[in-house]
Amino acid sequence: MALKHFRSLTPVFAATCQRNVFGQSIKATLLPIKSYSAATGGEDTGTGQTVVTERRGSVVTVAINRPEVRNAVNQETARRLLEELEAFDRDPDLNVAVLHGRGGNFCAGYDLKKLANRTAPPKLEQDVTKGPGPMGPSRLQLSKPLIAAVSGFAVAGGLELALLADLRVVEEGAVMGVFCRRFGVPLIDGGTVRLPRLIGLSRALDLILTGRPVGAQEALAFGLANRVVPDGQALEAALQLAEQISAFPQQCLRADRSSAIYSCFDAPSFTQAMQHETDRGVPVLRAESIAGAMQFTSGAGRGGKFS
């Protein structure tokens, strides 16, 4: 499912550096950090909002804003997360999104207090092609990179949201795990699909069957975490990574990303995976590769330099 949207207007500013295909700095400028709500189409101050977004040039941050419940997700939050990530994917001016939680925790899963107050299970569209998952965006197949900045708890459905991301930047004190194991709540937001593909079936079953907590260093060793950073620095590190990725030629980057995901999840054979790679890659040669090769021959990026 391909998706792209967002227009915003807020007065905060941040320094950013534009880079060429080889990562070299080409100019420095100040770009506005803009808070925006896809739901209302206007400025988002964060007051009373369960999800808050900020636009920083071609990068957007999407924050779960329920710190009083460790950012556990209710139906409203799930709906807003879906709206904002769909909006990001539709917007041609945005290249990368960063998902995080406010107040020291990424997400503690679905709000079980809300579930406990119901006399019957919530209605859920069982055809995954026709409706969202309980956590909101978990059934999406985004066309552009998503980075999770993980602090505190990323457990149960919160772990599943982190698995939706392409990359996970994890703080040293963060805890991940299938904590819902204890309460008979199943993984129905992609946890049993994405986790084995990311870290292998044996390790995934260790986490799924025991529900045990996993720290940052073990997550890094597993491949569940891509970067480990000091506490309090996940969002900043994720933003730096997002800006680096956003500076690369985007048609090429998205073609390679699409091919990697297709080969992992959808390709029925090696041959068809190779064909998909070729079909996505050939148009890039004319669109971006010739210009990149000219930059290289002029001396850019020699010796593997990115800056």
Question: Main traits of this protein?
Answer:
307 residues; alpha/beta; nine-stranded mixed sheet; three-stranded mixed sheet; globular; disordered N terminus
Write up what this structure looks like.
A hairpin with a 2-residue loop joins strand 4 and strand 5. By secondary structure, the chain is of the alpha/beta class. It has 9 helices and 12 strands. The chain starts with 11 loop residues before the first strand and ends in a 10-residue tail after the last helix. Helix 4 (191-199) crosses helix 5 and helix 8 runs antiparallel to helix 9. The protein has helices spanning 75-90, 112-116, 157-164, 191-199, 201-210, 216-222, 234-246, 250-265, 270-297; strands at 12-19, 25-37, 42-43, 51-56, 59-64, 96-101, 146-150, 153-155, 167-171, 175-177, 214-215, 227-229.
Q: What is the succession of H and E elements?
A: EEEEEHEHEEHEEHHEHEHHH
Gross morphology is globular
Radius of gyration: 20 Å
Broad structural category: alpha/beta
Largest sheet: 9 strands, mixed
Low-confidence runs of at least 5 consecutive residues: 1-34
Number of strands: 12
User: Roughly how many Å apart are the termini?
Assistant: 35 Å
Question: Helical segment tally?
Answer: 9
Approximately what portion of the residues adopt beta-strand conformation? Answer: 15-25%
Mean pLDDT: 85
Helicity range = 25-40%
Secondary structure elements and pairings:
Elements: E1 12-19, E2 25-37, E3 42-43, E4 51-56, E5 59-64, H1 75-90, E6 96-101, H2 112-116, E7 146-150, E8 153-155, H3 157-164, E9 167-171, E10 175-177, H4 191-199, H5 201-210, E11 214-215, H6 216-222, E12 227-229, H7 234-246, H8 250-265, H9 270-297
Parallel strand pairs: 5-6, 6-7, 7-9, 8-10, 9-12
Antiparallel strand pairs: 1-2, 2-3, 2-4, 4-5, 10-11
